[in-house]
Design goal:
The chain has about 150 residues and is of the alpha+beta class. The chain has four helices and four strands, in the order βαββαβαα. The protein has a four-stranded antiparallel β-sheet with strand order 2-3-1-4, covered by helices on one side. Strand 2 and strand 3 form a beta hairpin.
Length: about 150
């Protein structure tokens, strides 16, 4: 599925509350997107919250525009992209063949970094809810760490 970067402008600033209302809004957006085969991967937001750069997997730019309209979100430019990172070239010989050292270097890191980031975000969410006294929030000591070494 093609990947896109969508630029959105929020002249008054993006207002997405960090509470149950914000959670419901994000879930509504995700569900509406799914109806068109669109997946919101994540977004980057400018410091002043006037711009966002959203990463989407979608069948077409038209599908992104349609879910933007249905979700009442502005849609600026849509650019199809592919990943290029500095690790792509590590261990590639002049013949263009990937070395076994490069495979060992890059293979374990992506899944681990995704797992670590997801775990860290979940822990922070639980801690923030506990600090705010949100009813039903799991006590921080009951947060589970998916690590063979246990809690850090």
């Amino acid at each position: 599925m093609p990947r896109y970067i969508v630029e959105r402008a929020f002249p008054e600033g993006l207002d997405l509350p960090i509470n149950e209302a914000g959670d419901r809004l994000c879930r509504t957006i995700v569900n509406t997107n799914a109806e068109e085969g669109v997946t919101w991967v994540h977004s980057y937001v400018s410091r002043d919250r006037s711009l966002s750069f959203c990463v989407y997997d979608a069948p077409s730019p038209e599908a992104i525009r349609e879910v933007g309209r249905r979700n009442q979100l502005p849609v600026g430019s849509i650019t199809e992209v592919s990943v290029l990172d500095p690790y792509f070239y590590m261990g590639v010989s002049q013949s263009g063949k990937e070395s076994s050292a490069r495979v060992r270097l890059r293979a374990p890191w992506l899944p681990f970094s995704y797992l670590a980031a997801t775990t860290a975000l979940n822990i922070l969410k639980h801690l923030a809810m506990r600090l705010r006294g949100v009813a039903g929030a799991e006590p921080a000591e009951n947060v589970h760490f998916p690590s063979k070494y246990g809690p850090v």
